[in-house]
Amino acid sequence: MISRPLRLAAQGAAALTVAAGSFGVAHLDKAVAVSVDGQTSSLHVFGSTVGDALAKKGIKVGEHDQVVPSVGSPLEDGDTISVRYGRKLIVTIDGVKKEYWTTATTVDAALRDLDIRAGSNAKLSASRSQALGRQGLALSLVTPKAVTVSVDKKKLSHTSTSATVADALRELGVKHDKDDRVSPTATTPLRNGLAVTVQRVSQQRLRTTQEIDHTTRTKKDASLLEGTRKVVTEGKDGTRSFDVLRTLVDGRPAGDRILGRKVTSAPVTEVIAVGTKAKPEPVAPKPSAPSSTPDPEPETRSAPAPAPSPGNTSGAGINLSNAAMWDRIAECESSGNWSINTGNGYYGGLQFDIRTWLGAGGGDFASRADLASRAEQITVANRVYADRGLQPWGCGHAA
Predict the structure, then answer these.
(1) What is the C-alpha end-to-end distance of the chain, expressed in Å?
(2) 350, part of any domain
(3) 156 shares a domain with 120
């Protein structure tokens, strides 16, 4: 049987042990608050660090998440732990894409957090109040840009958040078709200070006429005395017509293209007979009877003047004068094809007809202009030009 004093001593020792255990448990159990993206909850945790509290709460954090105090910080009773998850934000600003990480929970807060300037007149692909979830977001931002548009003799100023020149023109109500010239092109991205020009392009069909100079040829005639010339067939100029497509830019002529040509009146070649009959020998005078009167001084007779000679008119040497001018005319006449023969009666880069070609000595080089070289065609053109200027060419305006 245990004595009363001994029993009381044992009970006192047991009570002391329980009190000490209770003090230790109370010291390890900490009441803390955990705020996750602004949502707060309370937690009792047996642990010594912030990481212990997060582990009990089942919260895992990554490199882009924000924890305050840090995960390794010691934990005290009554502490508040703040966790903000990182969100990936892909922002395309005026066509330039960039990636960001933010702990903001709305689009507007993220833009402020990242110091992305998006004034009230900027154009966003998402609402500023839209929530930003943990999965992140991709959005585009277009800043306003000042542009000028020159069109129809007017200069328009406009501030736009459009993406391209075409969008800005639509905002201004400027219509244009596929023939009009837009510079820079309609697909060009807008940038601040961009100057845009719209030129109105139209076309009209015209018909013009042109004289065709007649040529001259000679033929030998044995019935005419040598040196004698006689017109057998009177020469006559002809005419030809051109169908022309004229391009107008803002109402001003900007170039012609020949669609077709037609001889409406053929020229008549002048034919000149040149005598080849030899002149008769002069008859010597009969001697007169002697006279007592002294003969006067014998009369000095000059020999008859020789028949005029045409000289060397072949001009077979190459003459590349005005070559650049002829290249421009050829570009209009034949698209610069010096050997063209379409069967319409006109040949080569400068579209000679047979009569003009041969009449100007083109036979020195070839029977037709398309069979001659560029240099030879220019040589013959210079001969015609010396006599008649640019009148024979429908594209003389291109000179």
Answers:
(1) 143
(2) yes
(3) no
Kindly give the residue spans of alpha helices, DSSP state H, lying in the chain: 4-28, 50-57, 107-113, 165-172, 323-334, 354-359, 374-388
Mean pLDDT, the chain, whole residue set: 83
Q: What are the helix (H) ranges across 224-274?
A: none
- Kind of pairing, strands 80-84 and 66-68? antiparallel
Domain limits for position 326: 317-399
Same domain, 45 and 99: no
Do 136 and 159 share a domain, yes or no?
no
Query: Cβ(59)–Cβ(82) under 8 Å?
Result: no
Residue 286, domain member (yes or no): no
Angle between the N-to-C axes of helices 323-334 and 374-388, in degrees from 0 to 180, rounded to the nearest 10: 100
Whole-angstrom distance, CA of residue 156 vs CA of residue 189: 18
How much of the chain, in percent, has pLDDT values that exceed 70? Answer: 84
pTM: 0.43
Considering the domain architecture, whether residues 327 and 362 belong to the same structural domain is answered as yes
The answer on pLDDT for 23 being more than 90 is no
Does 343 lie in the same domain as 397?
yes
**Do 330 and 393 have their domain in common?**
yes
What are 75-123's pLDDT values in tens digits?
889 889 999 998 999 998 887 889 999 998 898 888 888 888 767 678 8
CB 398 within 8 A of CB 324: no
DSSP string, 157-194: EEEE--SBHHHHHHHHT----TTSEEES-TTSBP-TT-
CATH number, domain of 40, equals 3.10.20.90
Q: One-letter amino acid identity for 326? A: W
311 assigned to some structural domain? no
Q: Tens digits of per-residue pLDDT, 249-265?
A: 998 998 899 999 999 99
pLDDT one-digit tens code per residue, 343-371? 889 999 999 999 999 999 999 999 999 99
pLDDT band per the 50, 70, 90 thresholds, residue 27: low
244 located within any domain: yes
Number of domains in the chain: 5
Rounded distance between C-alpha atoms, residue 342 and residue 347, angstroms: 8
Could you tell me the CATH number of the domain that includes residue 208?
Answer: 2.20.230.30
> Which range has highest mean pLDDT (12-16, 139-143, 282-286)?
139-143
